[in-house]
What does this fold into?
Amino acid sequence: MTLVEWSELVRAELELAGTDPLQKPDVDRILDLARDAAHSVARPAAPLTTYLLGVAVGQGADPQAAAAALSRLALAQGEKPPQGQEN
It folds into this structure.
């Protein structure tokens, strides 16, 4: 089963009939954001960040712009030195 197929099963289960089906670029964008959050912030940040992306999109945010902003935010966290090790 592909992730696009999985997303269709989830949409049906949650009765999200009024939403557009996810396409592969959508899935890739979400997975890229999850990777950025997991690697730059902490592993548990991945599902939390993607959930919050979904909330934002549900409230009208542009999916591409919101995902890009959150990726930038997560990647910026990875550039900071660990707490207590600042210069």
